[in-house]
From TrEMBL:
The lineage of its organism: Bacteria, Bacillati, Cyanobacteriota, Cyanophyceae, Oscillatoriophycideae. GO terms for cellular component: cytoplasm. Residues 86-95 have a biased composition (Low complexity). Keywords: Chaperone, DNA replication, Metal-binding, Repeat, Stress response, Zinc, Zinc-finger. It comes from Crocosphaera watsonii WH 8501. One of its GO terms (biological process) is protein refolding. Residues 6-71 form the J domain. Residues 68-102 are annotated as: Disordered. SUPFAM superfamilies: Chaperone J-domain, HSP40/DnaJ peptide-binding domain. CDD domains: DnaJ, DnaJ_C. PANTHER family: DNAJ HOMOLOG 1, MITOCHONDRIAL-RELATED (PTHR43096:SF52). This is Heat shock protein DnaJ, N-terminal:Chaperone DnaJ, C-terminal. One of its GO terms (molecular function) is zinc ion binding. InterPro entries: DnaJ_C, DnaJ_domain, DnaJ_domain_CS, HSP40/DnaJ_pept-bd, J_dom_sf.
Length: 293
């Protein structure tokens, strides 16, 4: 029997961790191991893949419950209460599964929808709703997407650009017995970017010399890499703004990208660099602790 990987250990959380704790740990680790932050580092790349794999399982309640049963046996975690009673025709609430070619998910009957009482619901047109998780870049760009339903149907859907979390896309006539299908969009957390309304926030590391001397650095945006000028003497935690590089709002107007500066200290330096830093220490007059006492 194939041994399951311990996704809790990979994310550094306990078995009873909340969804918010899992998300927080994922974002922290994903930033540390992201290929853009560690170019050419195969170890970091493998860790990044493992972190994403762990988050894909533990962030979904249904997948997490099934994983717990496989890892621990009978799970002590109580599954979340369903928001609505399953329909009597045998359809079950479920999540989704993505493979290399298709988004796969199972239709379910949305709760809270008022509709007329029917004598024979199996022959009546019914609207159904399904959840579709997509990455931030796909939500931003939109475009044609192929999806496959659990009943075996395969559909091509024109996704609009600038989709937001919780948005629903109506597919007319693609529900049960001729009803409509509603795709509920969920934007998955990004390893680098964080949506704050129509603004996009991110952290960008700079070297000590870049922070002191300033200069031009490359910054990732949702449109790709752009050049940004770092002012001289920039402080750690200081935020710089890239105008009109954020996310489009309902009117199509884009917000800004907020870039938080992080000063990165190298773990290893060459002997030549060490000698230069020693010269700087001997000559520098700046003392950040002179007013402490």
């Amino acid at each position: 029997m194939q041994q399951l990987r311990n996704y809790y250990a990979i994310l550094g959380v306990s078995r009873d961790a909340t969804a918010e704790e899992i998300k927080k740990s994922f974002r922290k680790l994903a930033r540390q191991c992201h290929p853009d932050v560690n170019p050419g580092d195969k170890t970091a790349e493998e860790k990044f893949k493992g972190i994403n794999e762990a988050y894909d399982i533990l962030s979904d309640e249904a997948k997490r419950a099934e994983y717990d049963r496989g890892l621990f046996g009978k799970s002590k975690r109580r599954p979340p209460r369903p928001q609505s009673r399953p329909p009597r025709n045998g359809n079950n609430n479920s999540g989704y599964k993505r493979d290399s070619e298709f988004w796969r998910f199972q239709d379910y009957n949305p709760g809270g929808t008022k509709r007329a009482k029917v004598v024979n619901p199996s022959r009546s047109a019914r609207d159904v709703e399904a959840k579709l998780n997509i990455p931030l870049e796909k939500a931003y760009r939109g475009g044609r997407e192929r999806i496959r339903l659990e009943d075996g149907r395969s559909l091509e859907v024109d996704m609009p650009s600038g989709m937001i979390d919780g948005q629903k896309i109506r597919l007319k006539g693609q529900g049960l017995q001729g009803g409509d299908l509603y795709l509920k969009i969920t934007i998955t957390p990004h390893a680098v970017f964080e949506l704050r309304g129509s603004d996009i926030a991110c952290q960008v590391p700079v070297t000590p010399s870049e922070a002191i001397l300033g200069g031009s650095v490359e910054v990732p945006t949702i449109d790709g890499l752009v050049k940004m000028t770092v002012p001289k003497g920039v402080r750690p935690g200081q935020r710089l703004r890239l105008a009109n590089k954020g996310y489009p709002d309902s009117s199509g107007k884009r917000g800004d990208q907020l870039v938080e500066i992080q000063i990165a200290i190298p773990s290893e330096i060459s002997e030549e660099e060490r000698a230069l830093y020693q010269q700087i220490r001997e000559k520098e007059q700046f003392n950040p602790r002179q007013h402490w006492l």
